[in-house]
Write a structure and sequence with these properties.
Aspartate Aminotransferase, domain 1; transferase; EC 4.4.1.13; aminotransferase; about 40% helix; binds pyridoxal-5'-phosphate; 3-stranded antiparallel β-sheet; Aspartate Aminotransferase, domain 2; PyrdxlP-dep_Trfase_small; 12 helices; C-S_lyase_PatB-like; alpha/beta
């Protein structure tokens, strides 16, 4: 019913993913499998909802209607089983800007932020840009996948009372982990013991593979809600990143009021009118599109797995539980340090360098599979051709 297989050219739209090659590098014909947005046309109803608003010729300052809050409240209830009240929501432009402002507000200059690499680079770059030190509690890896290191994490908090905030990536980018309620509660309970704030970034919550289940941090016991903030957004799920809309859910009244005031003063809560229209439509009408999109992504992961097993079996890959991001380990092939860069310049395919997610992950590359299968296939063929040509296979 939906045309996920259809290639929709994004060239000459100032698109971050596709347009930088000619503009910035004078490179032609590169397949981009890096940044986390999708090459799928958005749900038709969203386009119609925005077109309807476009008909009115004045696009001035606009407040969120009750429908915006209601759409979020209903989606969170229906999809994640959590009860949210309007007065607990603070609307924001982007999730990254949201945690930037929260870190600035909650973490004093001599305090620190703890993160779990490998992790989405702004998790450590954003605190650093605010001159807050970052403590790393790496995820552990074994034959069953990636896991939180609860003991190591607690050790950090015990040793260093200046750690005051934990940035949780839930589901986790780039490993694709969906955490269980037991895992979420355990890590949040540790934070509670050491009076550490928790921000749970749940932007990938609705891109979940068959038989997997996202558990919002707000499913943890209500006694922990006072020091917890959940960040959500329809932008990853519905491919709307350019519209800049997201939200924070804050159960602690005083904190909610303080953050709402900061968001207003800084312009963080000043949202694009089309963002409002898109969010309402996505959350009210988007269930079926989202299901179909996740199915297509899952089939792309299966295609990728088959391709890897057939042509480059030395590369380690497991289909993730959530996200449309594949985290591939090339260590057995002993690829060069500048592998990602050479793939781009010589192989004309761009992946996201693993070292960006933490210095220990230079043998990994992240691949975005949210594209028509033909694009993914061409990208993978180019990676294979480069490896073959340079005798790594
Ligand atoms: C975990 C995570 N948080 C936030 C973002 C970006 O959110 P935004 O564009 O709303 O700032 C991304 C984008 O890839 C992400 O993976």
């Amino acid at each position: 019913m939906y045309q996920f297989d259809q290639v929709c050219s994004r060239l000459h739209t100032s698109c971050t993913k596709w347009d930088r090659y000619e503009n910035r590098y004078q490179l032609h014909d590169v397949i981009p499998l890096w940044v986390a947005d999708m090459d799928f046309a958005c749900m038709p109803q969203i386009k119609e909802a925005m077109a309807k608003r476009l008909q009115h010729p004045i696009y001035g300052y606009t407040d969120p209607s009750d429908d915006v809050y209601q759409a979020i409240i209903e989606w969170e209830k229906r999809r994640h089983g959590i009860t949210v009240k309007k007065e607990e929501i603070v609307l924001n432009t982007g999730v990254v800007y949201g945690f930037y402002a929260l870190i600035e507000m909650l973490v004093k200059e001599n305090e620190k932020v703890i993160v779990q690499p490998p992790v989405y680079p702004p998790f450590f770059n954003t605190p650093k840009s605010l001159c807050r030190k970052v403590i790393y509690s790496p995820l552990l890896h074994d034959e069953n996948g990636w896991h939180m290191d609860f003991e190591g994490f607690e050790e950090h908090l015990k040793k260093d009372p200046s750690i005051s905030l934990f940035l949780l990536c839930n589901p986790h980018n780039p490993t694709g982990n969906c955490y269980t309620l037991a895992e979420i509660e355990r890590i949040i309970a540790i934070c509670d013991r050491y009076h550490v704030w928790v921000i749970s970034d749940e932007i990938h919550a609705d891109i979940v593979m068959p038989n997997q289940h996202h558990v919002s941090a707000l499913k943890c016991d209500a006694s922990y809600h006072d020091h917890l903030i959940v960040l959500g957004s329809p932008t990853k799920t519905f491919n709307l990143a350019g519209l800049k809309i997201s939200y924070a859910i804050i159960k602690n009244n005083a904190l909610q009021a303080e953050f709402a005031a900061k968001a207003k003063a800084s312009g963080l809560s000043s949202i694009n009118i089309f963002g409002f229209e898109a969010l309402i439509c996505a959350y009210r009408e988007g269930e079926q599109w989202n299901q179909a999109c996740c199915t297509y992504i899952y089939e792309n992961f299966q295609f990728l797995k088959h391709f890897i097993e057939t042509y480059m079996p030395q590369v380690a890959f497991t289909i993730p539980q959530a996200t449309y991001l594949a985290w591939l380990d090339f260590s057995k092939l002993r690829v060069p340090k500048d592998f990602a860069s050479r793939l781009k310049w010589e192989g004309h395919v761009e992946v996201q360098e693993g070292s960006g997610f933490g210095s220990a992950y230079s043998s990994y590359q992240r691949i975005n599979v949210a594209c028509p299968r033909a694009t993914l296939e061409e990208g993978m063929k180019r990676i294979y051709a480069w490896l073959k040509q340079h005798s790594y296979l």
